[in-house]
What does this fold into?
Amino acid sequence: MTKKFNEGDTVYFISNGIFVREAKVVRCTGGFVTIKFGTSNTNEGPAGTRVRESKVYASKEEAEVVAKAHLNQHKLD
It folds into this structure.
């Protein structure tokens, strides 16, 4: 299995289906990445999570397109 991301890469994660958050890859293994969110916002701590590679995006624009599509799909329901 080839790795899509490497340690230290900046990636974008969609939180709650609509919010795009920037994160750094801490670890990659077995199709999963451990990402750590920055502390740029004052109300966020240095939290992180482990997610599938398919749930993170290399560019903010790519993540925003997916988030917008998700939001539009749920507006129709």
